[in-house]
Amino acid sequence: MLRIGFGSDIHRLSSDRPLILGGVRIESDLGAEGHSDADVLTHAITDAILGALALGHIGTHFPPSDERWRNSESFVFLRFAVGEMKQHGYEIANVDSTVHLEAPKLRP
After folding, report:
1. pTM
2. Distance in angstroms (rounded) separating the CA atoms of residues 103 and 29
3. Among 41, 45, 65, 103, which is least packed by CB within 10 angstroms?
4. Beta strands 24-26 and 19-21: pairing type?
């Protein structure tokens, strides 16, 4: 059986946070605000996996009100989602993601 999930995430930018995208620290004067490392790319992929499995969204499993997740690396969330996916007998065939930023430029 084929299942498709769509993930989306958005964070406000702030001058006192690092910018992390897909687990990579991007050179920037602005970073994303959030309870965890605020990695919008990893959050969106995590949400897509959870959505495809009908297991809610990232905030259901890792609520910002829970101090255990403060400043956590978002790959903790992604590893959880992938583990759930494997337990349910699924695997990823394709991931397609788009990041929208005015600055910094991610490529020339």
Report:
1. 0.92
2. 9
3. 65
4. antiparallel
Mean pLDDT of the chain: 93
Q: Which amino acid is at 54?
A: A
Q: CA gyration radius for the chain?
A: 14
Token code pair at residue 23:
């687990």
Residue type, 25: R
- The angle subtended at Cα 67 by Cα 72 and Cα 15, nearest 5°, is 55
Taking Cα atoms as reference points, which of 32, 35, 33 lies closest to residue 65?
Answer: 35
